Structures are given as C-alpha cells and as structure tokens.
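Recap quiz, item 2
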Amino acid sequence: MTVLLAAVTALLFACGAWLLMQRRLTRIIIGIGLLGHGANLLLVTAGGKAGRPPIVASDGSTDLATLSDPLPQALALTAIVITFGVTAFLLALGYRSWQITSDDMVEDDLEDRFLERRRAIDGPEGAVDDGDPTTSELEVGEGS
Amino acid sequence: MAAGVMTTGIQGVVALPIVLPLLGAASGVVFGAWRQVQRAITLVTLVSVLGVSIALLIEADSTGYVVQSAGGWAAPLGIVLVVDRLAGIMLVVSAIVLLAVAVYAIGQAGEERQRVAFHPLYLVLAAGVSASFITGDLFNLFVAFEMMLAASYVLITLGGRPDQIRSGMSYVVISLVASTLFISALALLYAATGTVNMADLSQRLGEVSPELRTGFSLLLLVVFGIKAGLFPLFFWLPDSYPTASGPVTAIFAGLLTKVGVYAIIRTQTLLFEPGETMGTVLLWVAGATMVVGVIGAIAQDDMKRILAFHIISQIGYMILGLGLFTVAGIAGAVFYVIHHIVVKTALFLVAGLVDRRAGSARLSEVGGLVRSAPVISALFLIPALSLAGLPPFSGFLAKFALVDAGIEGRSWWIVATSLVVGLFTLFSMTKIWTGVFWGEADEAPGREPVVTDRLGSPLLMLVGTLALVGVSIAFSIAAGSLYELSERAAEDLLDPGRYVVAVLGERP
C-alpha cells in the first residue's frame, strides 16, 4: 500500500509540476492544488502503513504496534487548512486578474520589456537605425 | 521534564512577540472604522513588542537560552519556543524596523489610509516574523512562514492595481511552490527520524546515513533559498517587491528575505554538522548570488528595482559568512544581517519619498533632487554609502568582518569576488545619486509632484526614515559591542549541543 501511495504522490507531483509550467493562470492554480495534495499525501505516508487507525482502533484496542502515528495526520490537517486558505486567495487573485485583462494568461514583466525597448532605442544599433521607432518597439514587444 | 536551566519569570513572556501582534491585529479589525484607534493599537503593540524583545535579548545574552514549552507540553512532543542570542538579536532588529515603517506608513497618504485591512495585516506579518525567529519546532516554522506569507500576499496586492495583481500572482505562486517543498521536506524528515522538534532532529539526524543527511540539508537549502532569494532561485524577487506601496516594499525588502536567511543559518548549523562539502556549496552559491545580483542591478532604470537587485547581491554576503563555518564567518554574517535589515529598509523608504516628491523613481525621469529636496538627498546618502561599504558606516564594518573571516579561512576567490561586488555596489549607488539627485531637475512628464516644499515629505514619513538612518549610524558607533554579541551568537550556533541541552535537558 505504501508503494502505491508513493506512486500516487509521484504522479501528483509530476502533473502539478507540468501544470505549473503553463501560461494559463487556471492551470497554474490547479497545478498548485495537485502539488499540495502530493505533499500532504507524503506527510500522511510518513505516519506508517496505510489503512491503520490513529490513537484508538475501532475494536477499542490501543496496541501501539497496530496503530499508525497520529502526529503526521495532525500535521497534514494543518497543512491542508493552510493550502485551502491560500488557494482561495489565489483564485480571488486570478479572478481579479481576469477582470482587469479579460484573459488568464500570465503576462511578461513590464519593466523587463521597458528596459529591452530602451536598449533597442538608445543602444548602438538603435542610434544608427533611423527607421520608425514604433516599428522597432513593436518587434521587441512581440519578441519578448 | 525540566525544559531549561532558567527559572526566572522571563520565560512567561517568550510568546508575547507572537501573541501581542495577533491580539493587536484582532482589535484592529474590531476598530476598523476608526483609523486613529487602529494606528494607536499598531504603535502601542509594536512598542511593547520592542520592549519585550529587548528584555528577551538581555536575558538570552546573560543565560544563553530562554526556553518555553507551549501549553506546558515538554519537548520533543510539545512545541517549544526558544530565544537564543541570534533569535534575540533578530527580534530586536525586526521590532525596530517594523515600528519605524509603521510610523512612515501612517505619514503616507495611500494604502494605510484607504484600506481597513492594512494595520491588522501588518501586525499579522509582524507576528509571523517573530514566530519564525522564536520557534524551536520545524513544523511550527512552516506555520510561522505561512502566517507571514499569507499576510504578505494580501499586503503586496492591497492596491488591486493591474501591475500589483500581475507581480503578486507570481509572488504567491513561487511562495506556494516553496511551501509545498517545505511540507515535502518535513514529511521526509519525519519519515526518517520520527520528530520535527529541531533539538531532537539535531540529535537523530546524526544517526541517519551521511548521504541522506546531505540530501535533507540541500532540500532545506532550496526551500529557504527560494524565500531568501539565493542564486538561482531569485527571479521572482526584483519583479514582485517594487510594485507594492512604499512602506510595504520596504518591510518586505528589509525583513522577509532575511527571515529566509535566518532559517538557513539556523537549520544548517543546528540540524546538520557543518562539513567541508556543504561549506563549498554555500560559498559557490554565495559568490554566484553576489555577482548576479549586482550585475542585474546595473541594467535597471527604476530606483526601486536597482535596490531590489541589490538585496539579492547582499544575501550572497550573508551566505558567504555562513559557508565559512567559522566563528568569525558566522559572526560576520549575523552582523551583516543586522546592518542590512536596517539599511535596506531605510533605502526603500527613501525610494518611496523620492517617488512621492518627484512623481517617479526612474533615473531617466527624475533629477536635481539635491537642490529641490536636500533632506531626502541626505537621507539617501548615508544608507547608500553604508550599503556600498564605505567607512565609517556599518556596512564597511560588516564587510570588513566578512573579508577578514574569509582571509582567515583562506578562501581567497570568494574574498576577491566580494570586494569586486562591493565596487559594483558603489557604482550602482553613484548611478542612483547622479540620476536622481544631481543633474537638471527634470520632473516626470505629465505627473505633477505631490509635494513641493523644501522638506519634501510629510513629517512622519521623514521621522520613520530618519529613525532607521539614525539606528544604522548607532550601529556603526556601537559596532564593537554589537560584533562581540554576534560573536557570542556564532559560538552558540557552532555548538548545537548547547541548544539541544537547553531544550531537551541533560540526557544521561
């Protein structure tokens, strides 16, 4: 069972990491969710063999050998609550971003674009180039 | 089990730097409709936190460790709060900076005045920062980080402007990735050792195989490296910090990355035996961080972004001191952290003043402030020269301590790198000086300056900035005793046995 859980953790991490690389905010948020699940599963797995009850078994036995460690489960609960709250905030942020841009793509850093454009205009090549500055600006904008 | 050797009443107040700001935040929400009451609550809370922190530092410096088990549950099962010399120093410095920035924020018309949430969030941030310094439990450190980060997510996007949303998004996502890695590291550590108490971990990690230990040490370095902005994990930092409002950027730049550095210093010295290999890794990372940060700064045109790149470069110096793993090196790193928190926050506050006075903080758009706003110019000059490491300011002493430690450790190349980076830092600061303060007064086109009198700013904003500049000057005056304190902290850090005994008691 633990091998299965480890495999599921690996799968969640792989899918989460892949989604995180996308340029769409919705996918990134889902990716973060999957990564969080993977990490929480890993925490639970650290508590011992799967399927065992923590603290007291259903037949009332408190034999430590048949119980799983309750601490990682408590830790996982804490982590789940935190991930839940932050994901809710992330969704709100994504919604606000959609309201502003009506698009859920991740945008480039504006300051980087500004610097690139400035270099294109007053760099040595730009100084020689007498062409229409808006053309070079457009080219840089598309390239970045 | 007797948790510590101290029986003085001071243990009772260990939790106050966390509890007071949280109480303040709660009452700040209740009194949301009365801005003056909110301000009073924030200031009173931060002043009391400063007082408690100073008391804790004095106690920790005389007895070594102040330990408190939360809820009376003894370590390693319960959560312990531990104030040693390093934590005490960090508490005091962060309380000073938080207080000065709060005063500055109150003087500024902006987020603080318009948003009900500013004061409560600011106090939650303060609680998270204090909790990160005090906690003696690795999972509790995660919770403290999340508390701090959750507040910072909201603070960074408080204005709701498009650029804030854009950069806030990447900030939140990268922090969440770091948190996920942190949980994973905790899960693996627990699976390997069966504990998350730092003192207990310090002992039990000695029993696992050295390869596993190296793996854990690198994993935690990555987790905290993302927060601290180490090479190659720094890309989010210069993009996201400058978009927030002035005081928020200043507190982020000054404090948040340094909490990451603190966590790196704490875990690398306490949990893992300092080894030659880890030292070399840290030194290379430090060198790359310094160089990349300073080169990134040269290309920038916005004052805040130049300063943001310099945070990265300066983090390199702190890691350099740690990587040497000698008393002199770590003492230098601790001294550097203290100096940097104050100076960097002061510089960002000045950038906020410039932005308000001239309508922009771009080098290409602003100029001639030395004539139109001499007070702001003077406030910039002192921390800027200190950051560049010119004598007699605290930056010079901090860099001197590190270079001296590097020469002692015979790490010539890193010493050479740090000196060259120091020159580039000076170049960057002169670039800001010539761009913003000297030259013709060319106001930003289309943007009217907000303030036009000679003082250049509301009085409270100047008071906040001036306080930090004053503290940084005080650091250079009291450098001798401050360095000795850092040295004592470094000796504690390099002997993790003391920490373990203070938390777990004497083991037979």
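The longest strand of chain B covers residues 66-69.
Residues 1-7 of chain B have pLDDT under 50 and may be disordered.
End of item.
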